[in-house]
Amino acid sequence: QSGYITLDYGFKNTGSTTSKITFLNGEEGILRYRGYSIEDLCDKSNFLEVAHLLIYGKLPTAEEYDQWIYDIKMHTMVHEDIKRILEGFPSNAHPMGVLSSLITSLTAFYPESLDPNRSIDGVKLSIVRLLAKLPTMAAWAFKNEVGHPVNYPDNTLDYVSNFLKMMFALPAEKYEVDPVISNALDTLLILHADHEQNCSTSTVRMVGSSHASLYTSISAGVNALWGPLHGGANQAVIEMLDNIKKDGGDVEKYIKKAKDKNDPFRLMGFGHRVYKNFDPRAKIIKKHADEVLSKLGVEDPVLEIAKKLEETALKDEYFIERKLFPNVDFYSGIIYRAMGIPTEMFTVMFAMGRLPGWISQWLEMRENNEPIGRPRQIYTGENLREYVEMSKR
Ligand code: SDX
C-alpha cells in the first residue's frame, strides 16, 4: 500500500469534511447553527424557521417564511398507498424501523428523486416533501404500533400541533393541542436540529456521497440514530431511570455499576464525544423539564432520580476524570413522557428534530461535490495461503 494509513477508530481525531452549518465547542459547551446560538434561537425562533436557517444558511424574510410554511403545508399528505406499506408491518414493529422504511418508500412515489443529476430546484422539492411528510409518517408509524386508525394532516394547525394531533387524536374524541406541549416540543426539535458530524449525520453524508437519493440517505441516518449509544439513548435513559426507581432509587449502586469495567452497564444520557463540559442542550432541556412538568401538573418521580443521579455522578472522581456530563438525551425523555409521548417514540422525536440538520449536511456535501466516502484500513489478517481440499482439513 503506497503512503501510510492513519488508524483512528471511531474517527475520534479525524475531520471528515469542512462545513459552514454548525459550530461546536466541546470544552466550553457552545453550540451555534449558522452562527446563531441555540440559546438565542430557542428564545426567539421556531423549528421551521431554524430548519430554513440550517438548510439555506439564513433566517428567512417574512415573505420567504410565508412561502416556506405554505410549501410545507401543501405537502403534509402522504400517498394513500403508504397505508398498504404500514399494513405489511407487525403491530409490534418499532416506529424507527417503520419510519426508515416509509422514508425509503418515497423513492417509489417520487422516482425523479433517484436522478443523481437533479437540479437544485428539483432537490428543493424533495426537501420540502421530506420535511412536510416526516411528521405524518412518524405519527402513522405510531398509530400502526398501537393499532389505532391513522389521522390525516390538519393544515389549519402549525407544524408541531399538526403532528401532535395526528399522534394522539382518536375518532371518537375531540382533541385539542395543549400549547404548553406544542411549545416545549418545538424547542426540543430546535435543540436536536443539527450537531455537526455525529454518527447519523456522518452516515447521511456517507450514503449521499455515493449519489444515493436524499430519501435513502436520510433513511440511513434514521437507522444510525436508532442505536442506543446515539439517538436511541433517550429511550435507554428512561428505561434506566425506571429500573433505578424499581430498584428503590439507589443511584449510588448504579454509579458503581457504571464505573465497573466488568459490568456492561453505562450511565445512559451521560458522556459525549465532543462535549467535555455540560452539553448546552441538556442545560436548556433540564430547565424546561421543571417548567413543563409543573405546567402539566405531572409528578414524575424519575425526574428527582435523574437530578440525584446527575448530582452524585458530577461529584464522582471517575466521571470528573473522564469529563462525563449529562448530554442531550439525559432529560429529554422525561419531558417527552410528561407530554404523553410513548417511550418507543422518543428516538422518532429525535429524528424529527434532526431532519433539517441531515438535509443541510447532505446538501452541503453534494453542492461541494465531495468525493465518495471510502476510508482505508490496516490489514491484520492471514498472509497468502493455498486452498486445502475438504478431505484434508
Ligand atoms: C448523542 O456525537 C454527537 O454529537 C451525538 C449527539 C447528537 O446530537 O448527534 O450529541 C447525540 O448521541 C448523545 C450521546 C447519547 N449516548 C449516550 O448517552 C450513551 C452513553 N454514553 C456513552 O456510550 C458515551 O459517552 C458516548 C457514546 C456518548 C461517547 O463515547 P466515546 O466518545 O467513544 O467515549 P468512550 O466510549 O471512549 O468513553 C471514554 C471513557 C471510557 O472509560 P475508559 O475506557 O477511559 O476507562 O469514558 C467512559 C468509557 O468507559 N464512559 C462512560 C460513559 N461514557 C463514557 N462510563 C460510564 N457511563 C457512560 N455513559
TrEMBL record:
Q: Which residues cross the membrane?
A: none
The reaction(s) this protein catalyses? oxaloacetate + acetyl-CoA + H2O = citrate + CoA + H(+)
Molecular function terms from GO: citrate synthase activity
Pathways per UniProt:
Carbohydrate metabolism; tricarboxylic acid cycle; isocitrate from oxaloacetate: step 1/2
Alphabetically sorted, this entry's keywords are: Acyltransferase, Transferase, Tricarboxylic acid cycle
NCBIfam families reported in the protein's UniProt record: cit_synth_I, PRK05614.1
The Swiss-Prot or TrEMBL record describes its family as follows: Belongs to the citrate synthase family.
**Identification of the protein by name:** Citrate synthase
The organism encoding this protein is Mangrovivirga halotolerans
